[in-house]
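Good morning,

Attaching, inline, the backbone tokens for the sequence recovery test we're adding to the shared suite. The designed sequence is right after.
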């Protein structure tokens, strides 16, 4: 049976400090495992990150999330009770140059308070409260090496980390591919099979409040847009904890449009998405001016198709999980990270039981 050869579970490296990696880390440390999380960025969060300007904080990735999974609903209930998340949006619209209609959706949605990245910051602090843990930021992992003692990680500066008995990769599949390809054909093929789409996300801080669009309420919070370039607009100052901010918009582009404009200058993208937004108001409407605006390109924003597998792992101690394994949603990522950790724990408990049984 292959599980007999699996390494023990005592010292794990996780690549990626997005919600998948941090959910995975928290479940493992609860089980007494030593965990080091690596991320190439300067802060945790990944696609739940927030741009922090002097004037405003603007969510650049996920804007609001659902909680359908029972375990994730429990986590969200705890976060709600501690003020880390809040219900948002309450006032949502469907908008096009032809008009605005209230968009009724009975499914509750939540956002981080006072910003989306508060959730991943909380998860990062929570796992680091356990002994034998570390969060290694600004560390781009470029290669994995296998030795008789376990897995060694190598960063872009040539520094080495390890040995670890397991490595969990939570990056989008194209970023995991060069790391797993020399070692595991099955995992490499899984990465190649999970194509990713790109998305431009622009932001704009305005010098005054927006006028109320015809047929809508002045307190609208989010709008799904029918326009070839722009698909969603959210008003960050309507999110709980950010009421003091000036009018500050996140403007999400359509995936097709993003891919056509993938190599454009961020400023040009911000201009195009703002121009698209202005078509939602009658032509003679005076609009506030933009104080600052630009755009962020998410090269690997979401998988092109949903999958039904939550994670993958190999007997050599490599595992992969993340939103590409189910659907591009915050809750899918959390569930994938949590369940992959649980699968590693269950397998190690099973292996220990089999080996103590065979030693009797
Ligand atoms: C524009 C946009 C809008 C979205 N809107 C919503 C929404 O409204 N609702 C919703 O539910 N979901 C939304 N999503 C999806 C949601 O954000 C993701 O499903 C979720 O955040 C994915 O988390 P993750 O941890 O799996 O991946 P990520 O957050 O991408 O984390 C992976 C981490 O790996 C790091 N990394 C990559 N390669 C390396 C390496 N070699 N070495 C070290 N670190 C590395 C990255 O820096 C990153 O921090 C949106 C996503 C985008 C991009």
């Amino acid at each position: 049976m292959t599980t007999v050869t699996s390494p023990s579970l005592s010292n794990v490296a996780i690549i990626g400090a997005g919600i998948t990696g941090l959910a995975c880390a928290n479940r493992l440390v609860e089980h007494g495992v030593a965990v080091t999380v690596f991320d190439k960025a300067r802060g945790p969060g990944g696609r739940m990150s927030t741009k922090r300007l002097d004037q405003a904080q603007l969510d650049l990735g996920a804007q609001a999330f659902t909680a359908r999974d029972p375990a994730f609903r429990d986590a969200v209930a705890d976060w709600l009770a501690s003020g880390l998340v809040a219900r948002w949006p309450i006032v949502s619209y469907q908008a096009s140059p032809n008009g605005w209609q209230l968009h009724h959706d009975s499914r509750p949605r939540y956002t981080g308070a006072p910003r989306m990245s508060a959730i991943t910051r909380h998860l990062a602090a929570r796992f680091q409260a356990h002994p034998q843990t570390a969060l290694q930021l600004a560390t781009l992992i470029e290669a994995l090496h296998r030795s008789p003692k376990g897995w060694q990680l190598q960063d872009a500066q040539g520094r080495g980390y390890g040995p670890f008995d397991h490595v969990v990769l939570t990056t989008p599949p194209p970023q995991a591919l060069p790391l797993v390809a020399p070692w595991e054909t099955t995992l490499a093929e899984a990465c190649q099979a999970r194509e990713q789409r790109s998305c431009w996300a622009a932001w704009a801080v305005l010098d005054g409040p927006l006028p109320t669009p015809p047929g809508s309420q002045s307190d609208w919070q989010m709008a799904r847009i029918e326009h070839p370039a722009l698909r969603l607009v959210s008003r960050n100052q309507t999110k709980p904890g950010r009421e003091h901010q000036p009018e500050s918009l996140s403007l999400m582009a359509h995936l097709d449009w993003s891919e056509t404009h993938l190599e454009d200058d961020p400023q040009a993208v911000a201009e195009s998405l703002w121009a698209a937004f202005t078509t939602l108001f009658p032509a003679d409407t005076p609009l506030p001016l933009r104080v600052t605006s630009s755009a962020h390109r998410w090269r690997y924003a979401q998988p092109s198709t949903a999958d039904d597998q939550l994670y993958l792992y190999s007997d050599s101690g490599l595992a992969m999980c993340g939103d590409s394994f189910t659907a591009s949603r915050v809750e899918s990522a959390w569930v994938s990270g949590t369940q992959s950790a649980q699968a590693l724990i269950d397998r190690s408990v099973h292996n220990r039981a089999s080996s103590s049984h065979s030693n009797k």
